[in-house]
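pasting for ref. prot 1 ->
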Amino acid sequence: MQAQITLSIKQVHEFLLHVATARPVFIWGPPGVGKSALVEQFAQQLVVQNACRCQRHCPT
């Protein structure tokens, strides 16, 4: 089992980008701190990045 780490808001995006795309990540905190919003925003950024990559490299 991995040790718990604490990240600042600025560090979360980079962490998710490098870790959560390959391994499960557990995010917890009290209600109302923005856990769901953080994950939704991250997922939207991945979709946009992948769409942009596909538009450049995929045949039309």
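and prot 2 ->
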Amino acid sequence: MTDTSLLIPDDELYSFAENLKYKSNTIAGQLFPDMKTASLEAVWYDISDGGDLPVMSLVHGFDTESNIGSRKPFREIKLQKMLVKEKINQSEKLQMLLRNGVTAAEKQIDFIYNDFARLGANVYSRFDVMRCELLTSGSISVVENNQNYVVDYQVPAGHKKAFDWANAGHDILSDIQAMVDTAEDAGKTINTAITSPSVLRTLLANTEINRAINGTTNLGILVTREKLNSLMDQMFGFTITVDKSKYQYQTASGDFNTTPYFSANKFVLAALGSDGTLGKCIWGETPEEFQTQQKGGQAFNNYVFMNQKEEWDPVALWTKAAAIAIPALRDSRSLVIGDITLPAGATSTPLAAPVSPMPFSAPASIPKTSDGTLRPLTVTSAPGTSVGETILTVTGATGALVYKVTNSGSTVTYGKVLADTIDAEGASPFTLDLGADSNGKIITVVEVNTDRKSVTYGTATVAVKV
């Protein structure tokens, strides 16, 4: 029998799992914060339409009996929490480490604890995906691992809008006003908006928004994110938050795809409660956790439970992480969800993800050099206003931009996309938070066409505020 079980005693693993910190990187994670109950089901109550609006009382004559009021009807919502789990063979990992010369027990333990942390983060991320899907669609779809069903949170059909913002001259402000009116008709006051970098770029490039900010005389002057939020606050009483967080998932072929948590074509208005949330993500006790307590173990005060099991033939030591939870939307009328048709090229698939082969035709106006590299863009970097920020100016680009920061820069050829790039946000010049450790490194900025292929690029030495 393998001696790897001696490395992490059960009580130490239990303590590690209980003290592992989980923090959602998504906006939805903040709007549906974590809480834990012992029940397998999550139960809450949703008041009928107009639940937040007062019902007018009647005038009475003196010395008369008071009219008897009525409570508004409500519906009980009861959903079973979802089970998410994953396991890994620690023995195989240790054998690999030993083959590569890692012999010190402390080093082996470090690798094992890293596996524990990754397992916990992987399980937790599935519930982040659920929260974001609820926020952007009003439902959660489960089509995976022989499961196929939809959890519908009954967001009213009228609270789901479809808008075409592909034309830069479209009156987007009227569409937003229509969304606000829908919420107000249901007795809700919108106090925040959440969207993607792709929709934000569309808003910044919109002619009517530019006109509302700069006036007809100064039409065409750059609209910044700060100016846009000032306009939103003045007109509607809220500002726009952009969710840029990403995660990975593994395909059936074994590839790892990178994708945004928040859908690229969504613009969501929300009426947050007095606690600044839309509800909760309600966690529960897993079967493994319950079994441990039945054997005399103490209550587990965290969300993702971990345990180990040893097998003797073949020799293996499995570590498993498991959790059950489900997001709960406090009021189905607190969301107004916009499904947006974006301009061509505005939606950018994260470039770390595999891109399907597509025919590529470079624009004739962007010639290549003799070695196949592209004529460079002019890129400059200057320190921003906050620590870690840079103000990036890009000259010569007309399409969507992506960037990558490296120690020595990257050479880009026609039709080639860089790995690990992300969307550049807003119009040039724009502010990027690259972190203080990026100062002095090289940023490569790439313009991509509608097929998500590179057409030209430029580099600059990063200058951030330190």
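The first helix runs from residue 10 to 19.
The chain has two domains: 1-347, 378-461.
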